[in-house]
Amino acid sequence: MGIVGDVRDAAEWVAAALTASGYRADFSPGSLWEIERFFDAEAPDGRPRPNGLLAQQLGPRLFALGSYVGEVVRRHVGGDWSGDDDDPAAEVDVCLELPDGKRIWPVQRVMRRFSNGPEDGLVAYGAALGLGVGARPGSVRRRWFRR
After folding, report:
1. C-alpha closest to that of 90 among 116, 66, 122
2. Backbone phi, then psi, for 48, in 5-degree steps?
3. What is the 8-class DSSP label of residue 48?
4. Are residues 77 and 110 in contact, defined by beta-carbon separation less than 8 angstroms?
5. Domain 2-128, classified CATH 1.20.120, yes or no
6. Residues near 126 by Cβ (< 8 Å), separated by ≥ 6?
7. Distant-in-sequence contacts of 137-146, Cβ < 8 A, 24+ apart
8. Residues 46, 90 contacting (CB under 8 angstroms)
9. What is the C-alpha separation between 21 and 13, in angstroms, rounded?
10. pLDDT 10s digits, 75-127
11. Residues 15/68, Cβ–Cβ less than 8 Å
12. How many CB atoms lie within 10 A of CB 131?
């Protein structure tokens, strides 16, 4: 099947798993907020929550989450997955080649989000790539000046 097929399968699998766990994982740009919420709940301080959803099979689950993030970008911006099946680190090195010629590495970005926290946020990543991620769900827009 190869790494590209693995990416697509992993993205679909994690979308179903996230949905079953109460997250909205519908491949929309706004669903990146849900991935942020997932990391905030499951990996505070860059460590898996004991007995949480990342406490086991961390590597494959981070790969799946990176695949999901990349698929959100691919489905809304375009592009093609690229990877070397002979690379022993293919799961980490798989990249998405965007229509404008840029290359991104969503799995590596998810790994940084896991380790570094919100400073490597996925919503900002998506927005920088042109996705309309929208406002944080549940946020209240304040009016500072009233007439």
Report:
1. 66
2. -60, 140
3. P
4. no
5. yes
6. 29, 32, 69, 72, 73, 133
7. 137/30, 137/33
8. no
9. 12
10. 999 999 999 999 999 999 999 999 999 999 999 999 999 999 999 999 999 99
11. yes
12. 19
